[in-house]
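Quick review question:
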């Protein structure tokens, strides 16, 4: 399977209003999104059109893939289907930007080798689609901060103490607080 994401802009596309279609597969492997990692067991599929707008090559299309990540509460694997909008704008001449009054993050300049690398566009498309907090289900009970039991599958004895006791050990976004293990550390018992 051809998974190259570096696409040479075809010669014909250097005429205004010309368009060219490309599709293929992207082998991203692992996508890091904040504290989460999305693992793609299979290459993603993409389909994009390159269009000459006169000043630039406009890239527009979609990317689809299925990733596995860890539930933020119980850490069990979660499968996430992702479909992102691939967008890019590559100016044919570097000085065209000031004429159009564009901001620096709205465009790229077509490299001298006239090859467009889709990978950063695909990664950007996916990063806006991944969930802020991946969950196996909206009512995932998470892991017990006391004993580490997965509360979706077992009810540990710690529950008897009362759910409110656990609140400080779950952060605002529902993730287990990484410092929970320190809660019994005798900080103020200095000798
Ligand atoms: Zn979960
Ligand atoms: Zn427990």
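Suggested answer, residue by residue:
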């Amino acid at each position: 399977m051809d998974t190259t994401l570096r696409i040479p802009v075809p010669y014909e596309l250097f005429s205004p209003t010309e368009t060219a279609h490309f599709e293929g597969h992207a082998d991203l492997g692992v996508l890091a999104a904040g504290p989460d990692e999305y693992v793609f067991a299979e290459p993603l599929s993409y389909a994009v059109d390159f269009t000459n707008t006169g000043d630039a090559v406009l890239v527009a299309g979609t990317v689809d893939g299925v990733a596995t990540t860890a539930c933020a509460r119980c850490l069990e694997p979660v499968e996430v289907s992702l479909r992102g909008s691939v967008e890019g704008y590559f100016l044919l001449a570097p000085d065209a930007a000031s004429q159009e009054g564009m901001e620096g993050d709205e465009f790229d300049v077509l490299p001298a080798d006239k090859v467009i690398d889709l990978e950063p566009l695909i990664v950007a498309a996916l990063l806006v689609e991944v969930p802020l907090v991946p969950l196996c289900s909206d009512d995932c009970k998470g892991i017990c901060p006391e004993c580490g039991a997965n509360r979706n599958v077992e009810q540990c004895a710690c529950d008897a103490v009362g759910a409110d006791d656990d609140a400080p050990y779950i952060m605002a976004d529902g993730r287990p607080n990484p410092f929970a293990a320190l809660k019994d550390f005798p900080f103020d018992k200095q000798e």
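Why it works: The chain has a mean pLDDT of 86. The beta strands are 6-8, 19-26, 30-33, 36-39, 44-52, 56-70, 77-91, 108-109, 115-117.
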